[in-house]
From TrEMBL:
Domain of life: Bacteria
Lineage: Bacteria, Pseudomonadati, Bacteroidota, Bacteroidia, Bacteroidales
Protein name per UniProt: Glycosyl hydrolase family 88
Gene Ontology biological process terms, A to Z: carbohydrate metabolic process
Annotated organism of origin: Parabacteroides goldsteinii
GO MF entry, a single one: hydrolase activity
InterPro entries, sorted: 6-hairpin_glycosidase_sf, 6hp_glycosidase-like_sf, Glyco_hydro_88, Glyco_hydro_beta-prop_sf, PolySaccharide_Degr_Enz
Entry keyword set: Hydrolase, Signal
Signal peptide extent: 1-21
Protease in keyword set: no
Transmembrane stretches, start-end: none
């Protein structure tokens, strides 16, 4: 029986540990966790394929926000990326994206054209000089289709058929706004253009059918198309036909045209979805075929009643067409600057729905969830259930739209690409990246200048971008005070004028004033960065406001009470204050040479030390409320970030006390070393300190604010020789690795405990300025460490 109890206890302990790990290892997959294919690229969905696998590498193309056309390659094994500019500034329009075709020798051919072309605008094409290598290309060639109409050509889609001696058919929208093709047997000489679809006669010459196509690369080409643009036709329906044995047929094989040389009308082919029955107009998104070469389509429907979008799945069973609702899809994804009540011209721009061509029972969608467009995977299972769904992205910061499944992927390979929108008011005004469903390797945590600079610059840049949309992220409060210290340290260390200018602009906007509360240490914290700027530039306006506040406090010292449980206190009654205020006094002592500043600060520091420091544990309680508090396990409660404030505050004081100082420095150095000795015992194997220092299991999630402050403090000690390198540098390296791991591809550091006064739950998506600041302070210390080596 005793053995059984012991086994059960071991199982419970093991399970608890695994559950703790799962709480953060299985955190949501934000879009920002996924790797970039490019950080500047966009596409429409009418030129395909946009990317293909060739010998386990992805090769594709995109158009950037300068309108330039690029080829790219991406190796999922090592996440190495290459890009090649094929045409500079062709057309700032995401409809100008290129399409790709694999040649039998595995060279790559790319086709593209401007969207807003003219009567003589060409289709461009180029071929790689070597197989599976985009580093060198043939001369960019062009085709100028001579045909009726005065519009540009666009939307390239190529199909090479081995059953026709590798004849290539290139489909596009012609100058008459109709689906058109040209053909070539040598990829040099092209036939005259032929229109393949025209309007039914009752509609006259107007209208522009939109077409999607795919091929089995042997003897068939599958087509899905509409009557027109959904904006132009209230009953815009979806149609199907296929090219087989030189003829155009319905899905059941009935011939509708003896040759592609003779255009067909929608009324002659399969009507997959009939909008005249629902008055929900539609737009085609993709077409594929199953293992029996039965066609499968996905399309969007639009209700004119409320302009709501929905995604639909249609398949040919062998005898009939079935249509199945996938999901409701919200509305258009553009985020325009004008008032939402104004009609959106491109109101039919859905987030996107796309088939996996290797298994067309799988569909990827983009739809709004909590007001952000997210990517999901849907699996058609039939029956009553019909669909199973999985999230690809969730709780993302920005919209994820227009998914595309890479052709020729194999099991286990990352296979979905999508646009990640920084801004998208319209197809001629976009700022987008392209991501892939492979978790990014992240930044390197190697201790070299290049790696440190890459992550620190990314974090600083993220903060500057965030400030543009969230001005309150940089204010006069304590959160920003810590942030500014890190921003200044890295700006100064990297000698980046743009970063210094950013700080100067913010501080000047505040007229270099500290916060409003006269005594509160939190409202003095921003003065640290002001004084650092003064030390660098010697401008009096950077000094005077902070000095005036401190002088007033010293002339009007607060009342004696420091125990907040006994009533109001204006003193440094909470341990955080030892970071917020004493470093300001220490800086003033250094800058002015006036000993009164350090005398006052030391007196107040000792009061807090005597009040909150546990001399057995060598840690600080957050405030008097926790002096006798125990957690559910009977453990003393020591808050990670609270002690992080103290140890980082000690560093700031030591940095500003002269080396020869014998009155104050010995005390602070001794306390600093004492705390460091304790802290390295409490670091997790993964480099993080948990929010509850003595009870890691209560809140097992990573936490970067305490970790950042501790790592900064330890790095400083090693740097200055206050701590033995062989003992403490491993902890610094683990801490830095943990911090870097928490930085996503956008430069945003997560796993931050929100504003609090005790240990608590941490979420991956949480971010606050104090983690940004502590990471940048650490980066500056490590950079200095490398400078000394």
């Amino acid at each position: 029986m005793k053995n059984l109890v012991g086994i059960i206890l071991l199982i419970l302990i093991f399970c608890q540990g695994n559950l703790c790990a799962q709480q953060y290892d299985e955190a949501p997959s934000y879009a920002e966790d996924y790797a970039f294919v490019t950080q500047d690229g966009a596409w429409c969905w009418f030129s395909d394929p946009r990317a293909v696998y060739v010998e386990n590498k992805i090769i594709g193309g995109f158009v950037d926000k300068q309108g330039s056309i690029w080829a790219f390659s991406y190796d999922p094994v090592n996440q190495q990326k290459k890009q090649y500019k094929l045409k500079d500034q062709l057309d700032y329009d995401d409809h100008a994206n290129p399409s790709v075709m694999i040649l039998p020798d595995k060279r790559i051919m790319i086709f593209f054209s401007a969207h807003g072309g003219t009567t003589n605008s060409p289709i461009y094409y180029a071929t790689t000089e070597k197989p599976v290598d985009i580093s060198s290309w043939s001369k960019l060639d062009s085709i100028v289709p001579k045909m009726p109409g005065n519009l540009g050509v666009c939307y390239t889609n190529a199909a090479m058929l081995s059953g026709e001696n590798n004849r290539t058919y290139l489909f596009f929208r012609g100058r008459n706004f109709k689906p058109t093709f040209i053909a070539s047997d040598d990829l040099k000489n092209w036939s005259a253009p032929v229109t393949i679809v025209v309007n039914d006669s009752i509609y006259g010459e107007s209208g522009r059918p939109y077409m999607k196509m795919t091929t089995n690369h042997k003897d068939k080409i599958f087509f899905a198309f509409t009557d027109a643009h959904p904006r132009d036709r209230a009953t815009n329906s979806i149609y199907f036909m296929m090219y087989k044995d030189g003829k155009l047929c319905k899905a059941n094989g009935d011939v509708v045209s003896e040759s592609m040389e003779h255009a067909v009308m929608p009324s002659q082919v399969d009507k997959v979805y009939d909008a005249t029955k629902t008055f929900d107009k539609a737009w085609i998104w993709d077409i594929a075929f199953d293992k029996d070469e039965n066609p499968v389509l996905v399309y969007a429907r639009f209700s004119d009643r409320d302009n709501s979008h929905s995604y639909w799945y249609a398949r040919w069973t062998g005898s009939e067409w079935e249509n199945h609702l996938i999901t409701k899809a919200g509305q258009w994804f553009q985020r325009s600057n004008y008032v939402k009540e104004k009609p959106e011209y491109e109101c039919n721009y859905s987030g996107g729905v796309y088939l996996d061509h290797e298994n067309p029972s799988i569909v990827y969608t983009s739809r709004p969830i909590n007001n952000v467009f997210e990517i999901e995977r849907w699996i058609f299972v039939g029956g009553k259930e019909k669909w199973k769904t999985e999230t690809v992205t969730s709780e993302s910061s920005r919209d994820n739209v227009r998914p595309f499944v890479v052709r020729n992927h194999k099991g286990g390979q990352p296979d979905v690409l999508w646009m990640y929108n920084y801004e998208y008011p319209g197809f001629r005004a976009y700022n987008s990246a392209i991501r892939i469903n492979q978790k990014a390797k992240g930044f390197s945590s190697e201790l070299n200048k290049e790696a440190i600079s890459q992550v620190a610059n990314a974090v600083f840049d993220w903060q500057m971008k965030d400030y543009k949309v969230n001005r309150n992220s940089c204010n006069q409060g304590w959160v920003s005070g810590v942030l500014y210290n890190g921003l200044f340290d890295w700006a100064d260390c990297s000698n980046n004028k743009g970063y210094i200018d950013f700080l100067n602009k913010i501080f000047s906007g505040f007229s270099w004033q500290v916060g409003n509360r006269m005594y509160h240490g939190d409202d003095l914290c921003v003065g640290q960065a002001y004084l650092d700027m003064y030390a660098k530039f010697k401008k009096e306006n950077m000094l005077v406001p902070t000095k005036a506040r401190v002088d007033w406090v010293m002339a009007n010292p607060p009342a004696e009470n420091i125990d907040v449980t006994k009533g109001h206190s204006d003193r440094w009654w909470w341990c955080d204050a030892l970071y917020m205020a004493p470093p300001v006094y220490a800086r003033l002592y250094t800058l002015t040479g006036n000993k009164k500043y350090m005398k006052f600060a030391h007196k107040e520091f000792l009061a807090t030390y005597d009040h909150l420091y546990d001399k057995e544990e060598h840690l600080f309680y957050r405030d008097a409320r926790y002096l006798d508090t125990k957690d559910e396990n009977g453990t003393k409660v020591f808050w990670s970030r609270g002690n992080g404030w103290v140890i980082a505050g000690l560093v700031e004081v030591l940095k500003n006390l002269p080396e020869e100082d014998k009155k104050y420095r010995p005390f602070y150095l001794q306390l600093y070393r004492e705390m460091c000795e304790k802290l390295i015992e409490l670091q997790g194997e993964d480099g993080y300190w948990r929010s509850s220092l003595l009870n890691k299991e209560t809140f097992p999630m990573p936490e970067t604010s305490g970790t950042g402050l501790f790592t900064y403090a330890l790095a400083y000690g090693v740097n200055q020789g206050h701590l033995p390198k062989d003992k403490y540098m491993p902890a610094v390296e683990k801490g830095w690795n943990a911090l870097v791991k928490a930085v996503n591809t956008e430069g945003k550091i997560g796993w931050v405990q929100m504003v609090a006064d005790k240990p608590g739950k941490v979420e991956k998506k949480s971010v606050r300025g104090y983690s940004v600041g502590s990471l940048l302070m650490t980066a500056a210390e490590l950079y200095e460490f490398l400078e000394k080596k």
